[in-house]
Amino acid sequence: MIPDFQSVMLPLLQCLEDGQIHQFRSLVEQIAKIFKLSNDEIREMLPGGSQEVLNNRVGWASSYLKKANLIASSKRGYFNITEKGKQVIASQPKSINVKYLKSIPEFLEWHNNSRIKKNNSVVANEEPLLVTKTPEELLEESYSFMKEELVSELLEQLKNCTPRFFEHIVVDVLIKMGYGGSRKEAGAVIGKSGDGGIDGVINEDKLGLDIIYIQAKKYDATVPIAKVREFGGALLENKGKKGIMITTSDFPKSAYTYVNKTDPRIILIDGIQLANYMIEYNIGVSLKTSYEIKKIDIDYFEE
């Protein structure tokens, strides 16, 4: 019988106990051996036919362990145990599940900040599924959870890419949103050497009736308010009316207070917003599967 994703958590962590970096595929094979799964069970697919059930559950188990900082991923598809993970193994827990992970501050912080509610039994699976929500509600919650995880993965990719490629992503996003005309035209004005906090300019529309000043910077920590003020000052010096500041991290509350009071108009786009735009405009993501929800057409049956 294929184990649920929580049952996979402890064996998965134990597979990484040697401190080496392991490829996801090899971890799935080890889990299959641990649970003595048959070839048919290993090949069993999700209802939509998009992925093997075992792969899916090992994937979610690894995702939860990462949220708890028990394992790390130097690059997509490769995992290793962390010092905190070694401490957990040394404590010899009988099992690891969502309830156990909530005792870890890093996981609890993520869980409390997550859009997924604590009583989401579909994701947490902490108690038998009670019929307290409609199928539509459960589907929406599951979709939100998977989108949140995709945003997290995109953020990881954004923070690991080169500054030049980050500028490339920014250009793609702005073009998809209707700015800048062609990619050649937009790319010609983004990524030039900064002038007082300005990285480039882009047309607001294909006709070039107005221009928008851009600053696109990778930051690991929260963007200092001084950088936002510097950008605002640069717009004034250049008589710019509109500006967009884009980062891989986030902005302090003081930055939003500043841009709401200042003229010219400045839009702040943090890493989470950028990742959501990438999902919305299909940049750096691909469609894995889709489901159609249909209902009876009463009008068809009326004579």
Main sheet attributes: strand count, strand direction, barrel closure: 4 strands, mixed
- Quaternary organisation of the protein chains: single chain
**Overall number of strands:** 7
Mean pLDDT, nearest integer? 85
- As a percent range, the share of helical residues equals 40-55%
* Secondary-structure element series: HEHHHEEHHHHHHHEEHEHEHH
Number of H/I helices:
15
Which strands sit side by side, in order, in the main sheet? Answer: 4-5-6-7
Q: Which consecutive residue ranges, at least 5 long each, have pLDDT under 50? A: 116-131
What portion of residues belong to β-strands?
Answer: 5-15%
Alpha-carbon distance between the two ends: 50 Å
- Which secondary-structure class do the elements indicate? alpha/beta
Q: Whole-number radius of gyration?
A: 23 Å
